[in-house]
Amino acid sequence: MTNNFKNLHILTHPLIQHKLTLMRDKNRSAPRFRQLMREIALLMGYEVTRHLPTISHEVETPLARLQATMIEDEKVAVVPILRAGLVMADGLMDLLPTARIGHIGLYRDHETKRPVEYMVKVPLTHSRTFILVDPMLATGYSAVYAVDILNQRGIEDHNILFLSLVAAPEGVKVFSEAHPNVRVYTAALDEKLDENAYIVPGLGDAGDRLFGTE
Ligand code: URA
Q1: Which residue's CA lies nearest to atom 7 of ligand 1?
Q2: 198 lines ligand 1 (CB under 6 A)
Q3: What span, in angstroms and rounded, lies between the C-alpha atoms of 214 and 212?
Q4: Cross-strand bridge partners of residue 89
Q5: Closest by alpha carbon to 13, among 39, 51, 52?
Q6: DSSP 41-97
Q7: Catalytic residue from among 21, 194, 208, 213
Q8: For residues 166 and 137, what is the distance between their CA atoms, to the nearest angstrom?
Q9: 90 noted as active-site residue
Q10: How crowded is residue 128: how many other Cβ atoms within 10 Å of its Cβ?
Q11: Is the pLDDT of residue 103 over 90?
Q12: Ligand 1 centroid to 137 CA: how many Å?
């Protein structure tokens, strides 16, 4: 699928694509599916953190003192959209162990396909960059809603990154129109949504496949 979206970055590293292909297989077990998602999130994290601000930090090696580069990772907040975002968040936390962590609990109303909020906890005091995480950017409604929640707490779009594994063009369009200044990262821009708002070919229900539920 051609990427015509200015704010969408498709991460095509062969390792990411290889692991995503393994995940797409409907016979992949839940533990392996979880492990692959965590590994992909870590690999995507390498790209997503490329523009994080750095500071100079004094460090003493066994031979000398020097000023060296560090990320202020405690100023980064990783915010999974529950529940499917949790495993990707774990992969990012492997890279940024002292990042803050928030949670946005949304479920999709089956009739309206719109998100319904049931829990929000966002670390506001120290955080500067917010990485929102949800593996499936499908209709885009949850993604827009989650960014709206951050905006209402004073966090501006240019300080928010959205990390997904698979995106549908319909969802990216909705999201980009609502929040054109939020950078979106994904491993794949798939073909379309089906009539139940599932991404095709997609992965199926990511939450169910992660946690072995139905
Ligand atoms: N949520 C999922 O888990 N899968 C989809 O395809 C769309 C939304």
Answers
A1: 198
A2: yes
A3: 7
A4: none
A5: 39
A6: HHHHHHHHGGG--EEEEEEE-SS-EEEEEEE-GGGEEEEEEETTHHHHHHHHHHHST
A7: 208
A8: 6
A9: no
A10: 13
A11: yes
A12: 8
ipTM of this predicted structure: 0.95
Alpha carbon separation from 137 to 5, 49, 82, 151, 162 (Å, rounded) = 14, 20, 13, 19, 9
Domains in the chain: boundaries:
8-211
| Residue of 24, 28, 183, 205 marked catalytic | 205
In angstroms and rounded to an integer, the radius of gyration of the C-alpha atoms of the chain is 17
Structure confidence by residue, pLDDT tens digits, 105-162: 998 787 877 899 999 999 987 778 999 999 999 999 999 999 999 999 999 999 999 9
Contacts of 33 (CB under 8 A, 6+ apart): 23, 209, 210
What CATH fold (topology level) applies to the domain 8-211?
A: Rossmann fold (3.40.50)
Q: The tokens of 97 are what?
A: 């162990």
Catalytic status, residue 205: yes
